[in-house]
Amino acid sequence: VQLQASGGGLVQAGGSLRLSCVGSGNTFSIIAMGWYRQVPGKQRELVADLLNGGTTRYSESVKGRFTISRDNAKNTVYLQMSKLKPEDTAVYYCKTTTVTSRGSNVYWGQGTQVTVSS
Q1: How far apart are CA 3 and CA 1, in angstroms?
Q2: Using one digit for the tens of pLDDT, what is the confidence trace for 22-70?
Q3: Which of 6, 40, 97, 105 is the most exposed place for a label (fewest CB within 10 A)?
Q4: Please, which residues have CB within 8 angstroms of residue 40's CB and are 6 or more apart in sequence?
Q5: Closest Cα partner for 22 from 107, 115, 113, 90?
Q6: What beta strand segments (E) does the chain contain?
C-alpha cells in the first residue's frame, strides 16, 4: 500500500485545515487508517484513527476540534482540523494497517507540515 498525504500549510490560530491521504495498491486489505503527528525531539503521537467498522479514536488534545473520516470509494482518509492552536504545529503523517493471510503490516505516508501561527 502506498499513501500520499496532502493539505498541510500555514494557518492562523483559530483557523481550519483539511488533510487528505490517498491510498493505492492493495487497499482491500486495509483495516484501519489514521493520522499521527510529530514535532522535533518528540515521539510520533496518535491524532485520530478510524477502523473499518467505524470506530474512531481521538487524542484528548484534539477531541471536539478534529474529525476523521474516510471515503472508501476513493481510498482516502481525511482529517478536518478546526479551531487550530499553535500547539497543533507538527508534521502530520497518515498511517494504514493491513491484514492479509500472511499477517499484518503498517504503512506510513510521507508527512505534511501543519504550522499554526499565534
Answers
A1: 7
A2: 998 888 888 899 999 999 999 999 999 999 888 999 999 999 999 999 9
A3: 40
A4: none
A5: 107
A6: 2-6, 9-12, 17-24, 30-38, 45-51, 56-58, 66-71, 76-81, 90-100, 103-108, 112-117
